[in-house]
Design brief:
Blueprint: H1 4-17, E1 41-48, E2 53-59, E3 77-84, E4 92-95, E5 98-101, E6 103-107, E7 112-117, E8 119-128, E9 131-132, E10 141-143, E11 150-163, H2 169-172
Parallel strand pairs: 3-11
Antiparallel strand pairs: 1-2, 3-6, 4-5, 4-7, 7-10, 8-9, 8-11
């Protein structure tokens, strides 16, 4: 009984003799299923579409099919923006130990805890949506399950004794 390689060679030779294939056909080495994936594989590539001729060419690597990358999904971001009642207070917002300035973006559905720092001032009232927003026990503020842009108005009051200090790493991790 003839093997698959012998039958393939017979048909290629017959097609060449009959003029069905151009004389520049490259040799093809078939790979058995149990051989290593790093050995050349047969890869069909279109060469001449006008004659519908296809030639098998050797490649060193198997074709890679890109996988769907879930990390590239677009995440909705919402903006947190802060305005201050004292424009020259040099106030800023900290998320953890990171100084975020007066605006930053957060992902939809996230929980955000932040601190407001203004040297020489203290937060009198934080308005969120025109209503007073209550601080946590440690003086930070938390917005849970963010689903829209958030705009805050910070009403600052002159602090006695120098105002709020910058939060230390231990204070922000509580």
């Amino acid at each position: 009984m003839k093997t698959g390689k012998q039958i393939l060679c017979f048909f290629l030779a017959l097609a060449l003799i009959l003029g069905l294939l151009p004389a520049t056909v490259q040799s093809v080495r078939a790979v058995e299923a149990d051989q290593s994936a790093t050995e050349p594989l047969v890869d069909l590539k279109a060469v001449d579409h006008s004659d519908d001729v296809y030639i098998a060419m050797e490649t060193e690597e198997p074709a890679q099919v890109p996988e769907a990358d879930s990390s590239q999904e677009e995440k909705t971001l919402y903006k947190f923006s802060f305005s201050f009642s004292v424009p020259n207070a040099n106030a800023t917002v900290f998320v953890g130990d990171e100084d975020m300035g007066t605006s930053f973006e957060v992902e939809e559905g996230s929980d955000v805890t932040f601190r407001i720092v203004a040297r020489g001032y203290k937060v009198g009232v934080l308005l969120f949506g025109g209503r007073p927003f209550q601080p946590n026990a440690d003086g930070s503020y938390t917005v849970t399950n963010v689903r829209s842009n958030c705009s805050f108005t910070v009403m600052l009051a002159k602090a006695e004794g120098g105002g709020q200090k910058l939060p230390s790493a231990a204070q922000t991790r509580r």
